[in-house]
Design brief:
It contains eleven helices and 13 strands. The protein is an alpha+beta fold. A hairpin with a 2-residue loop joins strand 5 and strand 6. The protein is elongated, with a radius of gyration of 18 Å.
């Protein structure tokens, strides 16, 4: 296990140094639907040489640019951050049945049915342990006026295998915030999946074939079904 952690962390570091892409953000679900993304670089105006980092701690991701007001906006106001093909949604204002999710930072997400979002929220601490180790070792500084998101390490850590997804569940975001700033989500549980697959007996049978309710509703089981249904891109968790 220790050897695997070291190898992953080393790979994260090497990948991070080899490639860093500009981070983009959007302020609301409506902006996400409309494709209104803005570069983080536009906010920092070259005032920092620090890499924009993805930190993982206690099941959540946080973005750091080194510019206080930008970090505050990303933490409290932005709806989502995009890096390459990877989407991260701010869970701060997300609600499930009126309650907050078990994380308040950013978490992984994928585009669902073109204009909706499927958010993966971890159910326990196991999934963040190895990721946290890799990201802590991968944090570094570069001499670059543009603020660039050192997320390749985070992407490798987050998406490296189904082990992580087996400890996460899926929530659907398909509307803007209410007057109090709260964004309603729908848990992709058995009832949701049964309704979704009511016109596809074979896929429903495949979903229900997993006997354990916990494993059946885990993202590792739900996402492949959504891919087969054509609601999520086939390479969404690669």
């Amino acid at each position: 296990m220790k050897k695997n952690v070291f190898v992953l962390a080393l790979f994260c570091c090497l990948t991070l140094m080899a490639q860093a892409e500009v981070a983009k953000y959007c302020m609301s679900y409506s902006d996400f639907v409309a494709g209104n993304w803005k570069s983080v670089d536009e906010l920092t105006q070259g005032r920092t040489k620090r890499v924009c980092q993805l930190k993982s701690n206690d099941k959540q991701c946080r973005f750091k640019t080194g510019v206080k007001e930008v970090d505050k906006m990303l933490k409290k106001q932005a709806f989502a951050v995009m890096y390459g093909d990877h989407l991260y949604v701010n869970c701060r204002n997300l609600r499930a049945n009126g309650y907050t999710l078990d994380i308040s930072g950013y978490t992984q997400a994928v585009r669902y049915d073109n204009d909706k979002v499927c958010v993966m929220a971890y159910k326990n601490h196991d999934a963040s342990i190895l990721l946290a180790v890799g990201l802590d070792l991968a944090s570094c500084f570069v001499d670059n006026k543009a603020v660039r998101l050192g997320m390749e390490a985070g992407a490798v850590g987050c998406w490296i295998g189904n082990y992580y997804l087996s400890h996460a569940v899926c929530y659907l975001v398909d509307s803007d915030a209410d007057e109090k700033g709260r964004i309603a989500t729908t848990r992709m549980n058995d009832k949701f999946m049964e309704n979704l697959l009511s016109d596809d007996a074979s896929l429903l049978e495949r979903y229900m074939a997993t006997n354990s309710k916990r494993n059946r509703q885990a993202a590792a089981n739900v996402l492949p079904i959504l891919m087969e249904k054509g609601l999520v891109a086939s390479n969404a968790i690669n």
